[in-house]
Every structure is written in structure tokens, then in C-alpha cells.
């Protein structure tokens, strides 16, 4: 069995062979706004943006972040020709793995089910969501329970109603107004969105005890082609180099 050092050497050789096109054409990755993790208002554009940029720099490449909605990122990567090289941070699902390549983990996050205290909600299984109107930001996914919910909806469209929103704030406004029963959201995003609500509405929002997705890894996804494979290998090689130098935080710490 060949060592990881052997594969790293091959990747770095690939970089030398492809150095001109990569240097001439910036690696462009799409990312939506995610407080602390991917935020154009910050000097480093967020902790995950910094990690990705430093990982590419460690193998002699460079990256530009382009802000766009989550669903738009997925379609832009899959387009023919592709509009961007990849996107982050995304969770990994079986459906997505059919279309995209995924890097090594760059961070992690926990997602919860939120409800309005006027309509208390706790759950132990997806069955407890039967008949509810559920808020989800368009293009977001929330792990195994979300996938199970999607399967239920395919088999029985009347099982529940999905009410998509363009961003987390719109979702929480609908929850506070009673227009949806529950919503799924990352805890970091939720804190920011709730803070923007009027105090009276903030007081109504609660998180169910059971998360919809416990701490789960986040990744950079790429187009499933030769360039995507090269860019993924370069990023993974750069992440390994940062880890060896102790310059990159553990994936579980990146979302804190």
C-alpha cells in the first residue's frame, strides 16, 4: 500500500504540470453568507475562507470567494460550461456525491429545529413532523433526518409542507409570525437571524432539544471532472500541509 507521502508527491507534481493554467486563471469558489465562517464583511472573509485560501497558498495556488445563494452555487458548478470551480461550506449527501466531488472536511456545524413558543414542539422522529409547514432555506440540506423527510415527501406529498425562504432571516420572520410551524437552521446562522428580530419576536423563538443534524462535517464541493479532481487534490494536499505545520484549526473547531 502506498504511503500518503507518495500521493502528496503526485499531487504536487500535478500542480507543477498544471501551474500555468491555475496561475493564469484564479480558482473561483462560491459561498453564501455564513456568520464567522464565510463573511465578506470580515477582513479574512470568514474562518473557513481563510483556511481554504491558506491551504491553496501552501501548494502554490490562489482562490477567490464569490458570494452567491446556496442553490445558485450548486447550479453554477454543475452548469455546462461551469460558471465557478466549486463551492463551500456544504454538507455531504448521497445525492450530491452523484454530481460533485468533495474535499476533506474544512469545518463542522450543528443544525437545530426551531419553533415558536406559541406552538410548542419537540420531536423524536420525522413522524412527529407530519402535517407541519416546515421552513428551509432554499438549497440547504440537514443530514439523515432531512433525507428521511424528503423520502417521506416523495412517497406522500401530503406528509408535510416545505416552505422555502431565500435566507435565514426571512425564515425566522415567518416562524415568529406563525406562517410556518418549525424551521431547520444552523445554530450560528440562527443566532444572527434571531438577533435581527424585534425583541417581542426574539422571545418567541425556541430550539427543540433534539438537533436535526448533530455536529457534522462541512466540505468544499467541486465539479466532477478532471479540473475538479485536480482542484480537490490540491486543496486536500494544502490542508494536510497546514495540519502538519499546526497552522490549521481542527475541523471541529472551525465552526466555533
Structure description:
With 256 residues, the chain is an alpha/beta fold. It folds into 2 domains: 4-108 and 215-253, 3-Layer(aba) Sandwich (D-Maltodextrin-Binding Protein, domain 2), CATH 3.40.190.10; 111-214, D-Maltodextrin-Binding Protein, domain 2 (3-Layer(aba) Sandwich). The protein is 39% helix and 22% strand. It contains 10 helices and 10 strands. The protein has helices at residues 4-17, 19-24, 47-58, 70-78, 94-97, 143-155, 168-176, 187-195, 199-202, 226-245, and strands spanning 27-31, 63-67, 86-90, 100-102, 107-116, 133-137, 161-165, 182-186, 205-207, 213-223. Strands 1, 2, 3, 4, 5, 6, 7, 8, 9 and 10 form a 10-stranded mixed beta sheet that branches. Strand 6 (133-137), helix 6 and strand 7 (161-165) form a beta-alpha-beta unit. Helix 1 packs across helix 10 (226-245). The longest helix has 20 residues, at 226-245.
How is this structure best summarized?
This protein is of the alpha/beta class and 256 residues long. 39% of the residues lie in helices and 22% in strands.
Amino acid at each position: 500500500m502506498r504511503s500518503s507521502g507518495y500521493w502528496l508527491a503526485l499531487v504536487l507534481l500535478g500542480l507543477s504540470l498544471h501551474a500555468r493554467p491555475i496561475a493564469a486563471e484564479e480558482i473561483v469558489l462560491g459561498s453564501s453568507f455564513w456568520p464567522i465562517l464565510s463573511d465578506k464583511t470580515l477582513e479574512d472573509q470568514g474562518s473557513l475562507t481563510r483556511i481554504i485560501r491558506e491551504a491553496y497558498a501552501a501548494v502554490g495556488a490562489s482562490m477567490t470567494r464569490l458570494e452567491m445563494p446556496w442553490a445558485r452555487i450548486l447550479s453554477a458548478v454543475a452548469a455546462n460550461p461551469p460558471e465557478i470551480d466549486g463551492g463551500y461550506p456544504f454538507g455531504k449527501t448521497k445525492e450530491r456525491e452523484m454530481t460533485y466531488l468533495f474535499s476533506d472536511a474544512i469545518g463542522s456545524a450543528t443544525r437545530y429545529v426551531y419553533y415558536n413558543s406559541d406552538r410548542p414542539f419537540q420531536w423524536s422522529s420525522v413522524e412527529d413532523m407530519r402535517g407541519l409547514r416546515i421552513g428551509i432555506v432554499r438549497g440547504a440540506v440537514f443530514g439523515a433526518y432531512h433525507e428521511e423527510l424528503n423520502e417521506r415527501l416523495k412517497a406522500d406529498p401530503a406528509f408535510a409542507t416545505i416552505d422555502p425562504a431565500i435566507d435565514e432571516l426571512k425564515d425566522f420572520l415567518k416562524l415568529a409570525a406563525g406562517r410556518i410551524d418549525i424551521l431547520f437552521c444552523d445554530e450560528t446562522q440562527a443566532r444572527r437571524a434571531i438577533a435581527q428580530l424585534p425583541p417581542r419576536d426574539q422571545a418567541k423563538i425556541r430550539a427543540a432539544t433534539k438537533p436535526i443534524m448533530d455536529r457534522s462535517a462541512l466540505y468544499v464541493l467541486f465539479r466532477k471532472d478532471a479540473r475538479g479532481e485536480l482542484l480537490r487534490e490540491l486543496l486536500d494536499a494544502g490542508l494536510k500541509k497546514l495540519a502538519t505545520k499546526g497552522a490549521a484549526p481542527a475541523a471541529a473547531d472551525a465552526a466555533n
